[in-house]
Write a structure and sequence with these properties.
Low-confidence stretches of chain B: none
Number of domains of chain A: 2
Mean pLDDT of chain A: 84
Low-confidence stretches of chain A: none
Number of strands of chain A: 0
CATH topology of chain B: Helix Hairpins
CATH topology of the largest domain in chain A: Four Helix Bundle (Hemerythrin (Met), subunit A)
Oligomer: heterodimer
Number of helices of chain A: 7
Structural class of chain A: mainly alpha
Distance between the termini of chain B: 57 Å
Mean pLDDT of chain B: 87
Number of helices of chain B: 3
Strand content of chain A: under 5%
Helix content of chain B: over 70%
Helix content of chain A: over 70%
CATH class of chain B: Mainly Alpha
Shape of chain A: extended
Shape of chain B: elongated
Number of strands of chain B: 0
CATH superfamily of the largest domain in chain A: NADH-ubiquinone/plastoquinone oxidoreductase chain 6, subunit NuoJ
Distance between the termini of chain A: 82 Å
Number of domains of chain B: 1
Largest sheet of chain B: none
Order of helices and strands of chain A: HHHHHHH
Radius of gyration of chain A: 25 Å
Strand content of chain B: under 5%
Largest interface: A-B, 93 and 73 residues
Radius of gyration of chain B: 17 Å
Largest sheet of chain A: none
Structural class of chain B: mainly alpha
CATH class of the largest domain in chain A: Mainly Alpha
Chain lengths: 197, 101
């Protein structure tokens, strides 16, 4: 099953290149010293994942991935990095928990090995086919996704709008200056110093 | 016939592991946050692969919702990070043990 002979070589080429881009980008995010470099590697990973989306006939989500993730979210990350001036890498050399890094690596490798072990003993995908509607067949991908979102998942879709409003309000509240009065006092003190000097 | 779904699931598993290990290993809060994004993307990839393997549009709908929630999460998370950096200069994960008992 792993090596389906019917697969076209072009599909394999695209898949392999996109996978290498994705995994190299992921390793780059984790290993880059500079946060800006991490953000740029993140863009690389997101574009690679977008290519894999196209390969799997998810055209609408490809567009959303490029616009929302690579466009909006990474720009937000870069904006915060620039705003906070965390350009200089400030990672601590001293580890508070000495064994944490090796143990984290070990846990990661063990988890991956467990996944492949489990898969060896079972099958990749089971379950009812097309329980929420067919993906293939006549009609475009956007049309099918739209029908699904606005019929089966209408309630979830509406809740999503509430979630976005809550997120916007929450970010405004969080980033607002916490002590406007304290700022005023500081400004008055500065003005007095200037008058005295 | 395109590449079998098993390959996509394997790539997604490796990407998820990279994200999880990065989250545990790095100390910079922003990079830890990016690692969470890596993990979310790996899960999105599995959802889309299962949608194709089972010929089910539900998988793609769920990815749509995951993306919306991820966008909201990034907005709130970066807001929290900005608020933390306002209070203190260096903010690695080790500096943020105020909640420790």
């Amino acid at each position: 099953m792993l090596l389906a002979a019917a697969t076209k070589p072009a599909d394999w080429t695209v898949f392999v290149i996109a996978s290498v881009i994705v995994l190299a980008g992921g390793l780059g995010v984790v290993s880059a010293r500079h946060p800006v470099h991490s953000a740029l590697f993140l863009v690389q990973t997101l574009f690679g994942v977008a290519v894999l989306f196209v390969e799997e006939a998810a055209q609408f989500l490809f567009a959303v991935q490029v616009i929302v993730y690579a466009g909006a979210i990474v720009v937000l990350f870069l904006f915060v990095i620039m705003l906070l001036g965390v350009g200089r890498p400030r990672e601590r050399i001293v580890d508070v928990l000495k064994a944490q890094r090796p143990v984290a690596l070990l846990i990661g490798v063990l988890g991956l090995a467990e996944f492949f072990g489990l898969i060896n003993a079972s099958v990749w995908a089971t379950g009812t086919k097309s329980s929420a509607g067919q993906l293939t067949g006549p009609g475009s991908n956007v049309e099918k996704l739209g029908r699904s979102l606005f019929s089966t998942y209408l309630l979830a879709f509406e809740v999503t709008s509430a979630l976005l409003v809550i997120a916007v309000v929450a970010s405004v509240v969080l980033v607002r200056r916490p002590h406007a009065a304290a700022d005023d006092e500081a400004r008055e003190a500065d003005a007095e110093l200037e008058r005295a000097g | 016939m395109s590449v079998p779904g098993a390959w996509y699931l394997s790539v997604a598993a490796v990407l998820f592991t990279i994200g999880a290990v990065g989250l545990l290993v790095r100390r910079n809060v922003l990079i830890m946050f990016m690692c969470v994004e890596l993990m979310l993307n790996a899960v999105n990839l599995t959802f889309i692969t299962f949608a194709r393997m089972l010929d089910d549009v539900g998988g793609q709908s769920i990815v749509f919702f995951v993306m919306v929630v991820a966008a909201a999460e990034v907005v709130v998370g970066l807001g929290i990070i900005v608020a933390i950096y306002r209070r203190r200069v260096g903010a690695t994960a080790d500096d943020l043990h105020i909640l420790k008992g």
